[in-house]
Amino acid sequence: MTDPLRLARADATETEGWDSGGPLRDAAVLVPLVLHPEPTVLLTLRTTKLSSHAGQVAFPGGRIESGESPEQAALRESWEEVGLGPALPQVLGRLPDHLTGTGFRITPVLALLRPPLQLIPEPGEVELIFEYPLSRLLDPALPQQQKARFRGAERAFWVWPHERHYVWGATAAILRNLALVLR
After folding, report:
1. Of 102, 106, 105, 143, which Cα lies nearest the Cα of 18?
2. Are 157 and 148 contacting, i.e. CB atoms less than 8 angstroms apart?
3. Strand 61-63 relative to strand 167-168: parallel, antiparallel, unpaired?
């Protein structure tokens, strides 16, 4: 069993120095493990038409509405973004919250999905639905920490290698925490 304090420390280092300058807004994402013979993690590529995080790799998810739990928000957003029926995911629990430099506290909701799946990207939000092999996620040598300047300060962030997409930021940090839990 993974030490929850280790995860909390790992998560805290992701957001060290990332002060959004205001109150945090709550959001939730669904972290779906697809139970193929070789399991995968389901991800989306956001459309380039969006006003924020355009063209980035993400989990299905978004803001938590008033009166919603993180699980309800993650399931609702997954239905809206990729057509994932709310009864399909078997919710397992939550990964540690992730704080972003853009002012969000993201609660990742871990769930299992059993194929076959018939997912349809909502064209106003999602350009592509794709899967990342769980075997690659479990390789401790793969995530890379990179640095960049953001709002006048140097920031460190995680990147997961992929043939076609740049998997970084909150998505990469959540994938890293998932990998720590599963290892």
Report:
1. 102
2. yes
3. unpaired
* φ and ψ at residue 75, rounded to 5 degrees: -70, -40
Whether 170 and 129 have beta carbons less than 8 Å apart is answered as no
Report yes or no: 57 and 45 within 8 Å, Cβ to Cβ: yes
**Residue 97 corresponds to which amino acid?**
D
pLDDT tops 80 at residue 7: no
Q: Which of 36, 54, 35, 52 is nearest to 44 (CA)?
A: 54
Distance of alpha carbon 78 from alpha carbon 98, whole angstroms: 19
Q: At what angle do helices 169-182 and 4-15 cross, to 10 degrees?
A: 160
The model's pTM is: 0.84
What's the full length of the chain, in residues?
A: 183
Tokens for 28, please give them: 């939730």
pLDDT per residue as tens digits for the range 95-154: 999 998 788 999 999 999 999 999 999 999 999 999 999 999 999 888 888 888 777 888
- Residues 81, 63 contacting (CB under 8 angstroms): no
Q: What stretch of H or E contains 80? A: helix 70-82
In 3-state terms, what secondary structure has residue 181?
helix
Query: CA of 165: how far to CAs of 43, 52, 103, 106, 141, in Å?
Result: 11, 17, 24, 22, 19
Q: What is the pLDDT of residues 9-34, one digit of tens each?
A: 344 434 444 455 678 999 999 999 99
